[in-house]
Design goal:
This protein has 634 residues and is α/β, with parallel strands linked by helices. Helices cover 32% and strands 24% of the residues. Strands 5-4-17-16-18-19-20 form a 7-stranded mixed sheet, with helices on both faces. The protein has a 5-stranded parallel sheet with strand order 7-6-8-11-12, sandwiched between helices. A 4-stranded antiparallel sheet has the order 21-22-23-24. α4 packs across α8, α6 crosses α7 and α9 crosses α10. The mean pLDDT is 95. The structure holds coenzyme A and adenosine monophosphate. The site of adenosine monophosphate has 18 residues, from β24.
């Protein structure tokens, strides 16, 4: 059993240079590497140093020249606008080349940053690939973030150009991007030289004279640009993700290692062949969207689906099944929360009968732990392997997965299976010693990290070292905790920091606390992620009012909720703030957030030995109960 997987896994760790050099043969290089694995080039291993390559060439041009010109590269399926549009590799290459011209016309040079703040429209993908074509560095910001979050990213990335759209379309409302963009630019210290704005028919916007240019006009006036080869180690993109403070971390991705790893993963993990349709139902604003809506499938010669809709409500819980059957999707990747949403509306899967899903081969889930119940339900409904796989924005591709393209391993419910070739995951104790099989520890990856994982943080090598490399020398600290069983199956159980996962979206409770603490009537607060049957986790905030504040509690609670939406964005899904008399603390004054979470989750609570006053625990429980927590629909 598992001989083939075992052999490949062992060779990836014993001889990583040979392993990844062989995988790199699948990529078109402008200049081959001097070294496959270079330990002297940065804080962690750099891959393919000396090589020159262009990511856009590998995603588009080489397929156009290699016989896939008329194959669909991208299918845009948008139930919110009633649109389905197909772009062949040739058409997509031509649009990208022209838009690269539009960026170059605005001064974008190799290494310059371009912020992309867009909804799920083909132009978002075109903008990303156009940056890659020029050797510029894109930084996509998820549309559900508010102006302040965008401003922080603008100040850190310092883009020459920002690409945006007039609006996004959520099922119940139009999200006006332009006012958010204007506010963000107003609040940021760095100012882009220009903004290219896609006017959407649903809700066009007014352009700011002298700064904004209409996308279509800019594209029409531009001459197509060729691919510019860059160093394999040059950055392809920066993707900001939640850290433990309000300041997000700018995860950097390189060009060469990323190409090799993603190409390898398409066949070996997901088991797809070039030419087949692969669908990641995520958003281009997240790492899943970067790796598996845009780069992975295109580089591998697959057709990718860009879906502007939801699993339910656009128009119903059969939406995913329709997309799979309409576009002949062979492998689907999404977050467990999407399946929980579908199951909640259509528990018996009655809508499935309307569609032909006979060619779907597998479902992959990530972004949060897949609860065994959801996994079993999905398997029963679809009749195909359902694979829980574990990864992070930082890693760029899966750390643990059942690698269907190598060999399907037996499933253990609750585990994303074993370390993927290239990844050597260990569970460590406080001293950095490996714990026994089955014992819980900090999950860490023995260095070197494989290609495709982050080489550093943008402008912040210090935080890169302190966040990931210092606690366990010789390892990358994932900030996830869990255990590894005697068969090498990894079980990822919780974060070791304040990150929570809300509907597959990564959020920092610390960042939410920073917003709440800035409210003039709040003396102190604690935000915790509590279990939610749809979104996995939801943030709730407990706040203590400043002494002397005699305002209506409900009013302050509503203001705090509004402030989080205004400062972080709707994506935080922060709807519950509750004024309490005091927070549980240790005698040294540390807030016992874990204890608050257990109370809110209605779990048994053992009174911590260090607590200052145990009576506060029943006060908190009573406040939550009076506020109707947990809500009956969660
Ligand atoms: N632009 C603007 N607003 C957005 C947005 C976007 N791109 N995406 C979400 N939002 C808003 C939503 O409209 C919602 O606003 P509301 O408070 O006014 O209702 C809020 O952000 C919270 O969104 P979300 O948590 O996604 O909830 P939802 O009710 O819209 O949808 C699910 C719930 C489960 C259907 C949805 O979260 C989902 O499909 N999740 C999959 C997650 C995913 O793709 N993760 C990526 C890793 S694989
Ligand atoms: P993100 O960077 O947004 O992809 O979030 C990464 C975090 O999501 C991880 O560190 C985990 O905490 C969690 N996560 C992602 N996938 C899984 C999974 N399959 N099982 C458990 N946790 C997961």
């Amino acid at each position: 059993m598992s001989r083939r997987f075992e052999e490949i896994y062992r060779s990836s760790l014993e001889a990583p240079e040979e392993f990844w050099a062989e995988a790199a043969e699948a990529i078109d290089w402008e200049r081959r590497w001097d070294r496959v694995l270079d330990d002297g080039a940065g804080p962690v291993t750099r891959w393919f140093t000396g090589a020159r390559v262009n990511t856009c060439h590998n995603a588009l041009d080489r397929h156009v020249d290699g016989g896939r010109a008329d194959q669909a590269a991208l299918v845009y399926d948008s139930p919110v606008t009633g649109t389905v549009e197909r772009f062949t590799f040739r058409e997509l290459r031509d649009r990208v080349a022209r838009f690269a011209g539009a960026l170059a016309d605005r001064g974008v040079q190799p290494g310059d940053r371009v912020v992309v703040y867009m909804p799920m429209v083909p132009e978002a993908v075109i903008a990303m690939l156009a940056c890659a074509r020029l050797g510029a560095v894109h930084s996509v910001v998820f549309g559900g973030f508010a102006a302040d979050e965008l401003a922080v990213r603008i100040d850190d990335a310092r883009p020459r150009v920002i690409v945006s759209a007039s609006c996004g379309i959520e099922p119940t409302r139009i999200v006006e991007y332009k006012p958010l963009l204007d506010r963000a630019i107003e609040r940021s210290t760095h100012r882009p030289e220009s903004c290219i704005i896609l006017q959407r028919e649903t809700h066009p916007c007014e352009l700011t004279p002298g700064r904004d240019v209409d996308w279509l006009e800019a594209e029409a006036a531009a001459a197509p640009r060729d691919c510019v080869p860059v160093a394999a180690t040059d950055p392809l993109y920066i993707l900001y993700t939640s850290g433990t403070t309000g300041r997000p971390k700018g995860v950097v991705r390189d060009n060469g290692g990323h190409l090799v790893a993603l190409h390898w993963s398409m066949r070996n993990i997901y088991g797809v062949e070039p030419g087949e349709t692969y669908w990641a139902a995520s958003d281009v604003g997240w790492v899943v969207g970067h790796s598996y809506i845009v780069y992975g499938p295109l580089v591998h010669g697959n057709t990718t689906v860009l879906y502007e809709g939801k699993p339910v409500g656009t128009p119903d819980a059969g939406a995913f099944w329709r997309v799979i059957s309409d576009h002949d999707v062979r492998v689907l990747f999404t977050a467990p929360t999407a399946f929980r949403a579908i199951r909640r509306v259509d528990p018996r899967g009655e809508l499935l009968a309307r569609y032909d899903l006979s060619r779907l081969r597998a479902l992959f889930l990530a972004g949060e732990r897949t609860d065994p119940d959801t996994l079993s339900w999905a398997q029963e409904m679809l009749g195909v392997p359902v694979v829980d796989h574990w990864w992070q924005t930082e890693t760029g591709w899966p750390i643990c997965s059942n690698c269907l393209g190598i060999e399907e391993l037996p499933v253990k419910l609750g585990s994303p299976s074993r370390s993927v070739p290239g990844w050597d995951v260990r569970a460590l104790d406080e001293e950095g010693q490996e714990v026994a099989p089955g014992a819980t520890g900090a999950l860490a990856v023995k260095l070197p990290l494989p290609p495709g994982s982050l080489p550093t943080l943008w402008n912040d090598e210090e935080t890169f070292r302190s966040s990931y490399l210092e606690r366990f020398p010789g390892y990358y600290e994932t900030a996830d905790a869990g255990f590894i069983d005697e068969d090498g199956y990894v079980f990822v159980m919780s974060r070791t920091d304040d990150i929570i996962n809300v509907a597959g979206h990564r959020l920092s409770t610390g960042a939410i606390e920073e917003v709440i603490a800035a409210h003039p009537d709040v003396a102190e607060c604690a935000v915790v992620g509590v279990a939610d049957s749809l979104k996995g986790q939801l943030p709730i905030g407990l706040l203590v009012l400043s002494s002397g504040c005699d305002r209506d509690r409900g009013e302050v609670e509503a203001e705090v909720v509004a402030a989080v939406r205004e400062k972080i964005g709707p994506v935080a899904a922060f709807k519950t703030a509750l004024v309490v008399e005091r927070l549980p603390k240790t005698r040294s004054g540390k807030i016992l957030r874990g204890t608050v979470r257990k109370i809110a989750d209605a779990k048994p609570v053992r009174t911590p030995a260090t607590i200052e006053d145990p009576a506060v625990l029943s006060e908190i429980a009573e406040s939550l109960r009076r506020a109707g927590w947990p809500p009956t629909n969660s």
